[in-house]
Write a sequence for this structure.
């Protein structure tokens, strides 16, 4: 077994940035039984996690509250064992201890697809000043591990689904946005000349070659301008109380985590200790001045009709492929040029509603309907979630609006019948349930509920 995480830092004589409560291990399935035997009745609970991990909640084992063993044994994890240079004993377990350089590479390997972005970045910043020169074996490990992390992410992305920032689920009834080019021009550190303009090739697309040809100072300046542009576009436009530091921080996170491709993402992660500090520049005053002068025009966005990608995602919901639908819709939401993606929020909400993720489904559907209030199917799904959330009056209004919009289904009548029953309208409930029975006569739930009302 190999110890990783904060416990490994302690064994390297390093004080972690946070208190150590968990013991993280890499090992094999056989190590599960070794842990059971070593801890005995100190194990309070044993929990399978994601099919390749086992979590042990323990007592009387200060300082740890739980042990988590990853027994996937991928080629990269097997190669990682060769990077470990000493052994130790923890809770009666004989473990390999990696050097701090190997621990940094392990953290860096999944920084492009972090489950907890701020924690990952904080850990990298804590570790980087402590590392020395990488060995050739350590350098060879990183690309192998990064590839495995990406492959695992592609296979299991549904478990990262809805790692959306809370700001993105806010309802924007009067959403106004700005052209990113206008924002870039007015906040550029050299007036009217944003650095990204030097990286646009003859085809009008971003050119990695032109980016790498610039000086490191210009590259860093371009990153800062992009963080500010996204911070204003995505967040300040909806919440003008945000400070310049908050705008920059939110823009950095959104840009690096969701919007940049691998080349720029790697550039930022590897220099995050430099980029994380907001520039000493009054960009917010320049933006406000440009907005007052009319150099930054606000406009109400129009998503237009659903595109083929939206239709494909909706087809996945109808086919019951909810995980696939969620992944497509969330990618659209996260990477959209603006926060305005009502079609994707609708598909995401519908998929989550079908999967039983009621509360978040309700937020996504409200977000979609705030921009496209006539979507009858979205109104139906919103009514469904409100009924489950024990808001029958609101649910009934949504079902009524969905019916007026042209949506008619057994599910609508059945669920509106349930809402009417909760509101004390037994006659209305029975009428809706009879309509549902006409459309789906062999459905046992409808038949049973009609019998209950009749009795």
């Amino acid at each position: 077994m190999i110890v990783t995480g904060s416990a490994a830092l302690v064994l390297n004589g390093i004080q972690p940035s946070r208190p150590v409560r968990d013991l993280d291990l890499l090992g094999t399935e056989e190590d599960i039984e070794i842990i059971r035997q070593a801890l005995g009745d100190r194990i309070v609970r044993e929990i399978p996690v994601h099919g390749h991990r086992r979590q042990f909640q323990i007592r009387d084992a200060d300082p740890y509250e739980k042990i988590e063993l990853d027994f996937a044994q991928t080629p990269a994890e097997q190669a990682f064992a060769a990077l470990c240079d000493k052994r130790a004993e923890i809770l009666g377990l004989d473990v390999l201890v990696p050097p701090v350089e190997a621990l940094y590479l392990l953290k860096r390997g999944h920084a492009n697809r972090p489950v907890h972005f701020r924690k990952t970045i904080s850990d990298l910043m804590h570790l980087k000043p402590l590392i020395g020169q990488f060995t050739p074996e350590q350098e060879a490990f990183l690309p192998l591990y990064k590839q495995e992390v990406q492959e695992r992410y592609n296979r299991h992305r549904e478990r990262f689904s809805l790692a959306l920032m809370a700001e993105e689920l806010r309802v924007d009834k009067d959403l106004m946005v700005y052209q990113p080019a206008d924002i870039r021009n007015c906040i550029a550190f050299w007036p009217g000349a944003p650095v990204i303009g030097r990286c646009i090739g003859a085809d009008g697309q971003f050119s990695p070659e032109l980016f790498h040809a610039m000086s490191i100072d210009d590259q860093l300046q371009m990153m800062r301008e992009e963080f500010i542009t996204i911070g204003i576009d995505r967040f300040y436009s909806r919440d003008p109380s945000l400070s310049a530091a908050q705008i920059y921080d939110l823009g950095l996170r959104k840009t690096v985590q969701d919007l940049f491709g691998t080349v720029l993402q790697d550039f930022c992660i590897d220099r995050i200790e430099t980029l994380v500090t907001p520039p000493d520049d009054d960009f917010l005053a320049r933006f406000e001045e440009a907005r007052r002068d009319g150099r930054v025009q606000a406009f109400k966005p129009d998503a237009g009709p659903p595109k083929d990608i939206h239709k494909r995602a909706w087809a996945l919901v109808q086919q019951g492929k909810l995980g696939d639908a969620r992944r497509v819709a969330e990618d659209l939401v996260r990477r959209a040029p603006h926060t305005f993606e009502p079609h994707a929020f609708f598909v995401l909400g519908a998929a989550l509603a079908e999967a039983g993720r009621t509360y978040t489904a309700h937020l996504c559907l409200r977000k979609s309907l705030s921009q496209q209030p006539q979507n009858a199917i979205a109104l139906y799904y919103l009514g469904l979630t409100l009924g489950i959330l024990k808001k029958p009056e609101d649910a009934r209004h949504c079902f009524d609006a969905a019916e007026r919009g042209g949506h008619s289904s057994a599910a609508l009548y059945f669920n509106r019948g349930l809402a009417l029953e909760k509101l004390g309208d037994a006659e209305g409930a029975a009428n809706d349930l009879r309509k549902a029975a006409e459309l789906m006569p062999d459905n046992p739930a409808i038949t049973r509920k009609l019998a209950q009302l009749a009795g």
Q: What stands out?
A: The mean pLDDT is 90. Residues 169-299 form one domain. Strands lie at 2-4, 22-26, 43-49, 53-58, 66-70, 86-90, 93-97, 177-178, 298-299. The two ends are 64 Å apart (CA to CA).
